[in-house]
Amino acid sequence: MNCGDVQIALTPYLDGELDIDRGREVRGHLRSCAACRQVAREESLLRDGLRALPTLDPPGDLWRGIARQLANAELADATGPRWRRVVARWQRSLRGLTVATAAVAIAIAIVAAVGIWRASHRGLQAARPELAAAPAATAPEVAIAPVVATPEGAPCSSLGPRDLAFDLKTEPTCVTEAYAAAATSLLDAALEQRALWSDEHQSEFNAKLDQLRRDIDLASEGRPRQRAYRALIRYLQRVTSRDEVELAGVRGAP
Amino acid sequence: MSALGRSATVAIGLVASLRFPASADPKTAVDERSRVEIQPSGAAFTQVSLDNPLGDIRVEGYDGTAILVEAHKYAPDPLTIDRLRVSLIPGADGRVRIATTAVDGREFRPVARSQVRIDLLIRAPRNARIEASTAGGRLQVENMDAGGELDSSSGSIAIKNVSGELITHSVSGPTSLRQVFGSVDAATLWSDVDLDSIGGHKLVASATMGKIAGRRVRSQEIELTTTNGAIMLEAEAAVHGQLVVSSLRGNIDVKVRRYGPVMVRARAAKLNLGVPAADVERQSGWSRALVGAGADPATLIELQSRYGTVQFAVVE
Q1: Chain B, 80-119: which have a CB under 8 Å from a chain A CB?
Q2: In the 8-state DSSP scheme, what is residue B65?
Q3: Would you call A137 an interface residue with chain B, using a CB distance cutoff of 8 Å?
Q4: Are B168 and B150 in contact (CB under 8 A)?
Q5: Residue of B nearest to A166 (CA)
Q6: For B112, which of A53, A198, B30, B265 is 20 to 30 Å away at the CA?
Q7: For A238-254, what is each residue's pLDDT tens digit?
Q8: B302 and A139 in contact by Cβ < 8 A?
Q9: DSSP of B262-308
Q10: What is the ipTM of this complex?
Q11: DSSP structure class, residue B121
């Protein structure tokens, strides 16, 4: 199953309409493909948002009015001339066509809006130069990363309805994503300050950063990778909050 | 208890297993309690590893030799409660691993994770090292003597009366360490670290979006770092000790009880070293002051907040 297949199957998957085998295939792909996972998450968020819209209670006499209109129409059908029945049928079918057209137009608008948002989001991510240094005129903001652990302990819980066994299997990846997001945020803060550093400090920073990133790449999925991310985060916390540590010996974990 | 590991090194006795149709928790319909005692057949237990992504872990040290495991499961129906498993995997070298999981299979109807729960209460020999991890559940460790490593995603970590080297990390769960007599490394991303009565040789704590508060800290080497949160510390200046407190945006407030001279070096957007301005030497953006008499400084203190304030005081 490739990304194209998964994105076609995503809507029925999120609706719980896929059979068990197909659902497992989609889940398996989502576990290994970050891009599709992101798409699934966005779609799930959109659904959550739609679901969160308030429900409108119809007025109590709504159905009575509809029943009265239906009865009147049936009476007219039974008693009126034939040409009027033909015209009424045409009117009804045209009305149905209008509703269907409106529904299609709304669906197209939603899909287009999501597509535009995704494209702009990707564009922003691509436009961010990874190692661009900018002088820090003001305190760099360290934003809370988008992937945040929930009280249930499932950081990417927005993936829609899932079974707990699936949650447990995907959890290490979700926690790793949270660490990765924090590291990215801190890296941005560090890069904003890099212009203030000496050349020696900058080259030391670059070398250390390369080494820590290599460690992350080499670490296996789950706890080892989280540990590698924590080492990067600890280093970035230090370099963003200090110019230098003059006192020797206070470095590293016990 | 199910999926018990087979090993000759321990003897496992099922003390009780009771299932109740209704639970105290209104969200769940069925709960089940079970108790297991693990006796060492040879050498004493040296390490207990616990992995419970489905609920809380509470570890209490005691003077016995056996490990007592009490599991409390909650689920919406009896079929789902049977999916929840607690595994005991004894090792040959005095290590025991206890893990919880949910059995996967097509025959089970999907159940949301929020509908089930397993809480573990462990009574372990004091001398066993503890390695424990939870996801959203609380992680509590008390009265242990061999330290350990504790990991949580969004659940809180609470440690009380623990000796030995201790490492904790959490993503968004608050960390509280009280009466820890050993080196500490506590790291969190988006929550606070609360330290009270820390007496080990080294204390390293860090938070990205949270504050660090420390009272009655007596470590020889202290390093506290935050990115956005404040740092408040009341510590004793250890002889020949070092104290490094730094933050990018947070305010720093350090009070030190001294027993000898203290050399403090600080840098911040706004600075108060608590000594007369004439006693402060300024160089390359840093302010230095020597508090107390003596040729060699007994304690070295470095404080810096790039965009916050630094407040320092010596309590005689």
Answers
A1: 83, 101-104, 106, 108, 110-116
A2: S
A3: no
A4: yes
A5: B104
A6: A53
A7: 888 886 544 433 333 33
A8: no
A9: EEEEEEEEEEE-SS-GGG-EEETTEEEEEESS-SS-SEEEEEEEEEE
A10: 0.86
A11: E
